[in-house]
Amino acid sequence: MTARLPRTEKILYGGDYNPEQWPRDVWEEDYAAFGAASIETVTLGVFAWSHLQPDEDTYDFSRLDAIVARAVEADARIVLATATGAMPPWLAHRHPEVARTDFEGRRHVYGGRHNHCPSSPVFQRLSAALAGRIAERYVGTPGLVAWHVGNEYGGAPPCYCESCAAAFRVWLQERYGTLGRLNEAWSTMFWSHLYTDFEQIVPPSALSEHWRGPNHTAFQGITLDYMRFFSDALLRNYVDEKAAIQAVDPGTPVTTNFMGMFRGLDYHRWAEHLDFASWDNYPRGEHAPSRMALAHDLTRGLKDGAPFWVMEQTPSTTANRDANPVKRPGVLRLWSWQSVAHGADAVLYFQLRQSQGASEKYHGAVLDHAGRTDTRTFREVAALGKELEDFGDATLGARTPARVAVLWDWDSWWAAEITDGVHRRLTYVEHALRWYRALWDANVGVDVVPVTADLTRYDVVLAPLLHMLKGDVAERLAAVVERGGSVLATCWSGRVDEDDNAFLMDPPGPLAALMGVRVEETDSLDPGTVNPVTLGLSEPGPGEAIVSDAELVFDVLVPEGADVVGTYGADFYAGRAAVTRHRHDGGGEAWYVGTVLDRPGTAWVVRQLLERHGLLGPYADVPDLELAVREREGRRTVFLLNHAAEAVEVPAHVGGTDLLTGRRIDQGETLRLEPTDVVVLRED
Fold this sequence. Notes:
alpha/beta; nine-stranded parallel sheet; TIM Barrel; 4 domains; Rossmann fold
């Protein structure tokens, strides 16, 4: 999992540049503007396949040669793509089997992007060959800092064609070895599904196991395995291209751009194949700052805490939603510094010049259609560029220390959301975000890690919706408690094994002894129906007892060694346990939260855990004031970011120098942060 980051002198600044869309004289205007904005990094060739290879037997690098030469002339840092982010029309025309077959069994024709079948031998051969040709031609190019394979792997729908069916059967034979083991894993005695030959297996789709869409399946085992398989199938495309690159250039790091909390791919299965992690930051939904922070921490966790890149963000607006608001003044700077605070060593845009046509012609860009440099967007981009230039290498390579971990698991995500019988509105990301936001509000540093991660460095471990227990995760969580740490699990955790079969024991299954509790039954009610949960400790502790409005899912708990911390206030289980705490001999605690608490209730529980370990941040009571830390060679850099709509005044909790202004700040001195303000303090 060791990361291999590009060697740079500063936080890289720039983004996707597609000069093949414009005449040569526009390039000159663009590079003049880039210089004015302190932009030194260009990502080239992401969607260049159709002009690099006009037919199967012909390569034409003349246009890309000119594009790369102009970047070299500008002394740019170059991120060079393999051009396989979208296949060319001739490929689907000549080899129609390369197009995907959708969930309903329809073979698609050419169009869009994310449109190839990853199991197609033709696509595998031609994409790897193109990556190899590009690497051969441009290896050693001055300024080349990284190779960029593909683009935002995934797409919808996945492919269900015959090539994928055949590859799936091979994948299953490698995973299970025998049909007996597969039948056991999939519980095929149910509904007479016993397989007697691997050739009988077809992908789970609307034509086979599904109804009412991809999340409703008769057999969770086969659907879960197909999701695993498809993630691996796309990973093979990446690995093939990376291998073609490294055959001629083993020295330059290779990555691809992820999409944060993207359901379609298990990024933990991909992580070991990346030299460094990167992702595209396009926040949506309630309270973007904590959602972005979670995605940053998740991406950083892919490479065991090493710095990552923000490969894309918009300087102003997106172009693919019902409403596409522009970033308000100061927000671009604020969100960019937030990414640096959480571990980013590059802040890049999509894109540098606005496309003239097609689906993203109104997507925000550094330069608009007129190429103006007197717009608010350009002025903010240029001001941030100058700040990053002056900032230099102050945090390059710096880590983000954390004593709190949140477990993240794609298998639990997938399994929980394709399972009937609990609640369709209990979604993995929103549930995890609810707990993460309570940590973010409390100013605590967090690592978001896989269930296989080393947990010995953490005092507090949260496992929201850990539906599936794999390997020795239950034992390693118990070890955290045995050495005095705190562990929290939530409703619908510890229910199934790695095959998605229920444990033949009381929930929360192998977590029951650790939690000191069993789930007697689980109620599920319509959204908007709440059950008040009274939360309080029998001994003095941080925070008075409160009442939290719980919703969606209600585990009725029977303590078996645990203390009751929260009780239901309504329905036939009024007075029964909803939240418990099990104190162990080693001084550690295991909390089980059997319902979906509202925001105040979630925050109350989180603060009990943090206070116990002295981890509550200095500004935990200042809404939307974010604190983050990066550390290198014993030097700490503290970031304060005001996401609130109002100014805040707080005492500096440490002394140091503000690296953005050069101003000396003494501990205890009053700091005033206007809305969107940022302070970056090099701690004494």
